[in-house]
Structure formats: structure tokens, C-alpha cells
């Protein structure tokens, strides 16, 4: 028999909400009602009382990841010398509806058959110098928070509007160039402050240009394929697991597969090359930057099924960021930095600040100061990423609860004794249950017993 719902005073409701949001550790009200004094118990009671809707997610609050927009003033771009590249075409290619275009790609043919790849990145560091109020605010956030029902920028929307590539006729940029031969080898790399002219495209629009044989897009695809082949020859790991777009509001949840046209791979490869080129430039010029390094995978995994890709991901060591260059074995590169998302990731912004200081003839931050900034931001970025992961699971389970009788196709991607890990590609959701189904097999499951406060769900094989 279900216990009667308590009649709470406004003060008691506030006390329980604070516990559910992780803003206090105890609740006298819950204790007197016989409930556990945990955020999950508080959340469950708020749902039962109808005080919180099922769409309410408390994870950002609990992890101290802010959901309040940043509204600090943004300075104008400084008047300074820049290389004018407005005669070259460049494209900011992203998902439909993207609101923070911070990178773009283009290329030009060179004498002798080589091609110069250009990766332009919004010159955010021109507006956010180290230890400025904007820098300190971005550091306190660590990264942009992308939730299924909202986005909270690491930097103000006004800065995105001012610096975003393709939002104006021309844009200031920090541009990485790589002169590549037909096999993807780099003959020269450079980093410069530039002015660029950028056109925004969705991945679908870019793919249409490639399919139509547009020479510029064919050239980019050829470079990307050669680069990927070269990195794979150096041990780069390919992991292809299901991805979905998840949108949520108080009315419901929509989940759709993320399209993977070739142009998505092309853009990703160009961004990888930009990180490689920027790292070479920093190393050659003695610029302190956080180099991204990764040890060898713990073992080799063969095969191309979902279970193989799942296992391959588990072999990857955690990426480390250090002041000295070193190999990133998962990417098959001898040196690498993250450089293409300074609007969205503080680590990328620091790389830009260091490169820009060098290019402007100023002194970059000393290594110890840079390391201190990164360490502070890393803690906040971890909270942001965890908030995103938990919120996505929450809304995915809302979607599951709305289809209680539905059978879902799942793949057994891992086994640990009698326990199997199932992956439902349509939801990009993994879960564990007891099953003797062999690794890699396909099963049909019904998901039942969704419990949002604990993010729990039971699976039953049909």
C-alpha cells in the first residue's frame, strides 16, 4: 500500500528542494517522514508530490555546473596587423542549428601538386586575454554546458555573435595552415592571425557539394582520406559507436540518430590536422601549451562490429595534458593540442592565448601559470561533462518510460561472467543485466521500471 503524501509547508518544500539540488546535506523534514536524507530520496518525493515535473534535472546543480548565462561586457577586436585571406573560400560546417561557429576549413592548390589546408578558428583570445574578467569567468565554467533542454555558454552570447565565423562579412581568426602532399605528409605548418571570409553550411549542405563533385570539397575529402590513412598506419584507433541527437522540454523527448555523412569525417580530420599543426608550431617555437598525450592502447582489438568498437574504446588510456610534447597514440600522432573550440572549451582557449601572445610579440604565460589555469578549469569542465551525461540519461529514460510496451533492439557488447552489457543503438543507451546471450548477438528487450531519481531501469529480454 502506498503511503499517503505528506502536506508540506513552503519552508519544508524549500528544504527538500535544496537537498535534491545538492545545496545542502541534510533534511530534517525527510528524516521525520522516515525517508533517507539523500538527493535521490528528495527528488523522488518531489516527483510524487507533483512539485517537480519529470523534465526537471538536478545534476548541474549537484555538480556545481552553472546554468546561468554569462553577461560580462565584451571588448572590440584590437586594431592590429592580420594576413588578409578574404580572397580564399572557407566554410564553417556544423550540425543544423549550431549557434557557436568557431572553426572553418578551406584549401588552396600549391605549385608542384601540393595542397595547403587552412583551418581557421575564431580569434577568441583577442577578446579574452589571460586573467581578464572574461577569462576568469570562462575558467570557472571550464566548458560550455550542453543539456538536452538548454545550452549555457562558457562565454557570453555577445562574444559568440562578435567572433563567430560566418556571422559577419569577414571575421578575425587564428589560422593554422598545413602544406600537404598527396599522401598526407606535411611539408610545412604555420599559425597566423588572419582576416577570413566564411560561409556557413550544414553537414547535409556540405555533403551535397561533395556529391555534386564541387572541386573544393573533393579536394578537402581527398586530403582527409590521405591523412586518415597515414594516421592509421601509425596506429590510430577508429571507434564508431551510435550517436543520437536528444532534445527535451516539459512536453517530451525526441531522439534521432546523428547523421554521419562523409563530410562529418572530413571536418573532423581537418580539425585533427589543425591540432597537429598547432602543436608542431608551438614545439618549434618553444611556446608553453598543454600538449595532449595518450599512452598505447592496453591491447589490440580486431573486428568492426559494435562489440569490437565497444571493447576498443575500453583499451584507450585517459588523455593527459602536459607542458612537454609527447605522442598521442590513439590518434596516431607524434604531437597534438586541442585548438579548434576556444568558444566552448577553456583548454583550447589557453592554447589560443599562448599562440596569440607569441604571434603578437608578447610573452606567453609561464608554464606554471598556464598549468594552474588549466587545473582549475579541468575540475569545472569535468563537472560540466558529468552533468551532460547524467542529464542525457535522465531524458533518455523519460523517453523510454513514455513507450512502456515497446521492444528495443540491443547488441551484447560486453560480458563479465553472467552479466552482459547491452547497447541499444537507437537510444545510444547501455545497460547491464543477467543474460547468456553471446557477445555480439542481437536481442530484443523491453525496458520497464524506470526510476528517474536513481536513473535506473530494468531490462527484460523478450
Automatic annotation (TrEMBL):
Alphabetical list of SUPFAM superfamilies matching this protein = Nucleic acid-binding proteins
InterPro entries referenced in this protein's UniProt entry, alphabetically: HTH_RNase_II, NA-bd_OB-fold, RNase_II/R, RNase_II_C_S1, RNR_Ribonuclease, WH-like_DNA-bd_sf
Show the Pfam families listed in the entry: HTH_RNase_II, RNase_II_C_S1, RNB
Q: Where is the RNB domain?
A: 82-361
SMART domains listed in its UniProt record = RNB (SM00955)
Q: Which domain of life is it from?
A: Bacteria
This protein's name: RNB domain-containing ribonuclease
To which species is this protein native?
Answer: Deinococcus rufus
Amino acid at each position: 500500500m502506498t503511503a499517503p503524501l505528506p502536506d508540506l509547508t513552503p519552508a519544508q518544500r524549500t528544504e527538500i528542494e535544496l537537498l535534491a539540488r545538492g545545496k545542502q546535506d541534510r533534511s530534517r523534514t525527510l528524516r521525520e517522514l522516515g525517508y533517507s536524507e539523500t538527493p535521490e530520496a528528495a527528488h523522488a518525493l518531489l516527483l510524487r508530490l507533483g512539485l517537480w515535473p519529470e523534465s526537471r534535472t538536478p545534476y548541474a546543480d549537484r555538480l556545481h555546473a552553472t546554468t546561468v548565462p554569462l553577461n560580462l561586457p565584451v571588448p572590440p577586436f584590437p586594431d592590429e596587423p592580420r594576413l588578409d585571406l578574404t580572397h580564399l573560400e572557407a566554410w564553417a560546417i556544423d550540425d543544423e542549428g549550431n549557434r557557436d561557429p568557431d572553426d572553418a576549413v578551406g584549401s588552396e592548390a600549391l605549385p608542384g601538386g601540393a595542397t595547403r589546408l587552412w583551418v581557421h578558428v575564431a580569434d577568441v583570445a583577442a577578446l579574452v586575454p589571460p586573467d581578464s574578467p572574461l577569462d576568469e569567468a570562462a575558467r570557472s565554467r571550464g566548458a560550455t554546458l550542453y543539456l538536452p533542454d538548454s545550452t549555457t555558454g562558457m562565454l557570453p552570447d555577445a562574444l559568440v555573435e562578435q567572433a563567430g565565423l560566418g556571422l559577419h562579412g569577414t571575421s578575425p581568426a587564428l589560422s593554422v595552415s598545413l602544406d600537404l602532399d598527396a599522401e598526407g605528409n606535411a611539408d610545412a605548418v604555420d599559425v597566423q592571425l588572419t582576416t577570413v571570409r566564411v560561409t556557413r553550411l550544414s553537414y547535409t549542405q556540405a555533403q551535397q557539394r561533395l556529391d555534386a563533385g564541387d572541386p573544393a570539397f573533393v579536394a578537402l575529402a581527398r586530403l582527409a582520406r590521405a591523412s586518415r590513412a597515414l594516421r592509421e598506419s601509425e596506429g590510430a584507433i577508429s571507434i564508431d559507436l551510435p550517436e543520437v541527437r536528444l532534445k527535451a522540454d516539459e512536453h517530451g523527448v525526441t531522439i534521432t540518430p546523428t547523421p554521419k555523412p562523409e563530410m562529418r569525417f572530413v571536418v573532423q580530420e581537418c580539425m585533427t590536422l589543425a591540432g597537429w599543426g598547432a602543436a608542431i608550431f608551438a614545439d618549434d617555437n618553444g611556446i608553453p601549451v598543454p600538449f595532449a598525450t595518450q599512452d598505447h592502447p592496453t591491447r589490440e582489438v580486431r573486428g568492426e562490429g559494435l562489440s569490437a568498437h565497444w571493447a576498443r574504446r575500453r583499451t584507450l588510456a585517459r588523455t593527459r595534458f602536459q607542458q612537454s610534447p609527447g605522442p598521442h597514440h590513439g590518434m596516431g600522432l607524434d604531437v597534438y593540442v586541442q585548438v579548434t573550440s576556444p568558444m566552448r572549451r577553456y583548454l583550447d582557449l589557453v592554447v589560443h592565448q599562448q599562440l596569440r601572445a607569441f604571434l603578437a610579440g608578447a610573452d606567453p604565460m609561464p608554464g606554471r601559470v598556464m598549468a594552474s589555469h588549466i587545473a582549475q578549469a579541468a575540475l569545472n569542465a569535468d563537472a560540466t561533462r558529468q552533468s551532460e551525461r547524467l542529464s542525457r540519461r535522465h531524458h533518455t529514460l523519460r523517453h523510454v518510460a513514455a513507450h512502456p510496451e515497446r521492444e528495443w533492439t540491443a547488441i551484447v557488447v560486453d560480458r563479465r561472467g553472467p552479466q552482459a552489457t547491452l547497447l541499444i543503438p537507437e537510444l545510444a543507451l547501455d545497460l547491464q543485466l543477467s543474460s547468456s546471450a553471446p557477445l555480439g548477438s542481437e536481442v530484443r528487450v523491453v525496458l520497464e521500471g524506470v526510476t528517474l531519481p536513481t536513473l535506473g531501469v530494468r531490462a527484460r529480454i523478450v
